[in-house]
């Protein structure tokens, strides 16, 4: 799971509505990714604050005062029809758009911002194992005593490059 999948499923993860397999994948990603773990902590703390806010109870005479005020506004609105302010929905929509723009700006900065320091594991270099020369291979030594026709090719070994000699001997040597 990558950070993009984590962000897409985070609301369902907080609400505990994901399947068990995906919940476990989310937990594993949070252990590996400090950025997503921090985001989860911030969201959960924010929800905890909202849930622990005291309930607001209006005073007993609130409804009577509200009804009187609404009647006054309704009577005054017909007289001032041309001075009407924009509906509350417009302000709510503008506020939602501003909040969305701020959220997108923060997420874009977090995604495309300066990279964190990258630390790699140390690398230990070693010299490659040297290849045995075809003259000293046990197969070659065994073939010399039996009179096989490989021997004249070895005599010309000094006259040809080692790579070509290795290739031609690899083609003639029996496999084990």
Radius of gyration: 40 Å
**pLDDT < 50 runs, ≥5 residues:** 162-166
Strand content bin: under 5%
Please summarize the sheet with the most strands. Answer: none
Got a strand count?
Answer: 0
Structural class: mainly alpha
State the oligomer. Answer: single chain
**Shape estimate:** elongated
Secondary structure topology:
Elements: H1 3-15, H2 20-32, H3 34-51, H4 62-79, H5 88-112, H6 138-145, H7 151-155, H8 162-172
Helix pairs in contact: 2-3
Walk me through what this model shows.
With 176 residues, the protein is mainly α. Among the domains are: 1-54, no CATH class; 134-172, no CATH class. Helix 2 (20-32) crosses helix 3 (34-51). The protein has helices at residues 3-15, 20-32, 34-51, 62-79, 88-112, 138-145, 151-155, 162-172.
List keywords for this structure.
mainly alpha, 8 helices, 176 residues, single chain, 63% helix
Question: Quick summary of this structure?
Answer:
This protein is mainly alpha-helical and 176 residues long. The protein contains eight helices and no strands. It has helices at 3-15, 20-32, 34-51, 62-79, 88-112, 138-145, 151-155, 162-172.
